[in-house]
């Protein structure tokens, strides 16, 4: 029998829960799946976009308000006045940019996690996955406002998820295959490669075992003939 380390490789995950469990597991090279990396990248990008979206208007508004409210103040020179206005704008940029940044990053991360999880569990990518993810995320962000806020978030999230999902699916199809199809293909190719390597090692071990048996039988046969 083959030693335990040469056991037959496990086939690709067949159930939805098995595919979901792989989402947070590293491979042999200690790398996370592409879906997990994409979730982290999209959350970071969403955070940057949210910071710019919330910070830039706050920067210009605070700068303008500072200039309008400091007409009677005395400054050492023009550069001092400009620097003071910029510092006021920068404080607002950091303050309001952060408020938008973490909210957008959290929304994008939850939306992508739910939509990716649904696609893995169902083993297919559909508009319904993105619509459900958007509805769940929107309702989660507005649930603190009561039933009316929950319903509003549900509608907003669904309206966001459908076009966003359609755009993502269109981009994936232009690339030739969806992310789910790519993942299934890579799983199948990796399993076939491991299976071929396992069969090759098993064949080598079987050949070595036969050679060892023949080597041991040789002296025993000669000893029997001499006796």
UniProtKB/TrEMBL annotation:
A Pfam cross-reference name: Tim17
Main subcellular location: membrane
Taxonomic source organism: Uria aalge (Common mure)
One GO CC term on file: membrane
Known role: Chaperone protein involved in the assembly of the mitochondrial NADH:ubiquinone oxidoreductase complex (complex I). Participates in constructing the membrane arm of complex I.
Subcellular location: Membrane
Name by which UniProt lists this protein: Complex I assembly factor TIMMDC1, mitochondrial
Keywords, in A-Z order: Membrane, Transmembrane, Transmembrane helix
Family listed: Belongs to the Tim17/Tim22/Tim23 family.
């Amino acid at each position: 029998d083959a030693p335990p380390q040469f056991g037959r490789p496990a086939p690709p995950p067949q159930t939805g829960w098995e595919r979901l469990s792989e989402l947070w597991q590293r491979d042999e090279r200690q790398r996370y799946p592409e879906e997990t990396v994409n979730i982290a990248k999209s959350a970071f990008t969403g955070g940057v976009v949210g910071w710019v979206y919330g910070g830039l208007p706050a920067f210009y508004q605070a700068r303008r308000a500072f200039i309008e409210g400091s007409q009677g103040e005395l400054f050492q020179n023009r550069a001092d006045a400009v620097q003071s206005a910029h510092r006021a704008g920068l404080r607002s940029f950091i303050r309001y940019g952060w408020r938008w940044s973490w909210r957008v990053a959290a929304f994008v991360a939850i939306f992508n996690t739910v939509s990716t999880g649904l696609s893995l569990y169902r083993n297919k990518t559909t508009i319904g996955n993105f619509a459900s993810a958007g509805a769940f995320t929107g309702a989660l962000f507005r649930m603190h406002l009561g039933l009316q806020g929950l319903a509003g978030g549900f509608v907003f999230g669904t309206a966001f998820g459908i076009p966003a999902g359609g755009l993502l699916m269109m981009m994936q199809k232009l690339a030739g295959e969806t992310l789910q199809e790519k993942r299934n293909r890579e799983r199948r190719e990796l399993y076939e490669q491991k299976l071929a390597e396992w069969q090759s090692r098993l064949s080598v071990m079987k050949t070595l075992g036969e050679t060892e048996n023949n080597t041991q039988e040789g002296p025993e046969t000669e000893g029997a003939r001499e006796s």
